[in-house]
Write a structure and sequence with these properties.
It is built from 11 helices and 16 strands. With 354 residues, the protein is α/β, with parallel strands linked by helices. The protein has 2 domains: 3-153 and 299-353, Medium-chain alcohol dehydrogenases, catalytic domain (Quinone Oxidoreductase, Chain A, domain 1, Alpha-Beta Complex); 156-295, Rossmann fold (3-Layer(aba) Sandwich), CATH 3.40.50.720. The radius of gyration is 20 Å and the shape is globular.
Length: 354
């Protein structure tokens, strides 16, 4: 085939089906056809908020598992027909930033995020993956593709929030936002040995999922200021760690207020609008409270994907809890994306199986 169809961002606030050339495969690369894909709130920020600027006729999507249809002549690990996990972040591994330990920023800030940012994404009949040996991982036969697609972004992003926050055994942790990323942060905090996990959210199905993943307490903004609720539950001391997986630029005010001196905030929320993040001066210790804030894009790479997949294989992580809407067939991509935009109360995560 020389042509393919894909679901694309036509411009800010506009989406639609387009036809494009099938991408070419470089010597280190792979061409993949999707087996299962999932839209993300990041797609919503990109299209309807213009969070990364205007994009014209750019195919959307960065969450997929797929089947390789072609590999370059220098690819050693993979071959046509292999089922693979495709991480949302596909770095250039030879870049200086990668050698410094920040592969997600290879050749520029956030530049490891290529799909639906700098190049066409995975909502297409075929898509291109750079540096296949380093950026793909084998999809184990025991894993359902619809559940495994969560390994592309939701799992590694939520887990990275917990890493950024430095969660340790016995820590009291607050996870702000319990959409799919926040739910994976709850799961990761539990796996890392957190004692109390305070999950901030209101949607009933997300609340129930958070409890299954290890949340000990549910905090609702409808019951008042969330920082005040956390301080009340901790006898005024606050929590050791905060993972921000939802909210907006003002959410950091509450995160700082609920955090102990010496604590850490890990942010993995995509701030799609606003000019500045606001920090409360007094509660930040007038700038000297040892309340650290770290924000980071999830790491990609084969090793990362293999390790996270092994958690699912071993039964330590069940992502199927998050799959509330399952579609069959490529033509349902638009419907699934609009669910992420509109966020009905029964939604956690939609998946389209090809």
């Amino acid at each position: 085939m020389s042509k393919m169809k894909g679901f694309a961002m036509l411009g800010i606030g506009k989406t639609g089906w387009i036809e494009k050339d099938v991408p070419e495969c470089g010597p280190l690369d792979a061409i993949v056809k999707p087996l299962a894909v999932s839209p993300c709130t990041s797609d919503v920020h990109t299209v309807w908020e213009g969070a990364i600027g205007d994009r014209k006729d750019m195919i959307l999507g960065h969450e997929a598992v797929g089947e390789i249809v072609e590999v370059g002549n220098l690819v050693k690990t993979f071959k046509a027909g292999d089922r693979v996990i495709v991480p949302a972040i596909t770095p250039d591994w030879g870049a200086l930033e990668s050698q410094a330990g920040y592969s997600m920023h290879s050749n520029g800030m956030l530049a490891g995020w290529k799909f639906s940012n700098f190049k066409d994404g995975v909502f297409a009949e075929y898509f291109h993956v750079n540096e296949a040996d380093a950026n793909l991982a084998v999809l184990p036969d025991s894993l359902d593709p619809a559940s495994a697609v969560m390994l592309s972004d939701m799992v590694p992003t939520g887990f990275h929030g917990v890493e950024l926050a430095g969660v340790e055994f016995g820590d009291k942790v607050c996870v702000v936002g319990i959409g799919p990323v926040g739910l994976m942060a709850v799961a990761a905090a539990a796996l890392r040995g957190a004692s109390y996990i305070y999950a901030v959210g209101t949607r009933p199905n997300c609340v129930e999922a958070a409890k299954k993943y290890g949340a000990t307490d549910i905090i609702s903004y409808r019951d008042g200021d969330i920082a005040e609720q956390i301080l009340e539950k901790t006898s005024g001391r606050g929590v050791d760690r905060v993972v921000v997986a939802g909210g907006d630029c003002s959410t950091f005010e509450q995160a700082v207020k609920m955090l102990k001196p010496g604590g850490m905030i890990g942010n993995v929320n995509y701030l799609g609008s606003g000019e500045f993040v606001t920090i409360p001066r007094v509660e930040w210790g007038c700038g000297m409270g040892h309340k650290a804030i770290a924000g980071g894009l999830m790491p990609g790479g084969r090793l990362r994907m293999e390790k996270l997949a092994s958690l699912m294989e071993a039964g330590r992580l069940d992502t199927s809890i998050m799959l509330t809407h399952r579609f069959k067939g490529f033509d349902h991509l638009e419907e699934a994306l609009m669910l992420m935009k509109d966020k009905p109360r029964d939604l956690i995560k939609p998946v389209v199986v090809m």
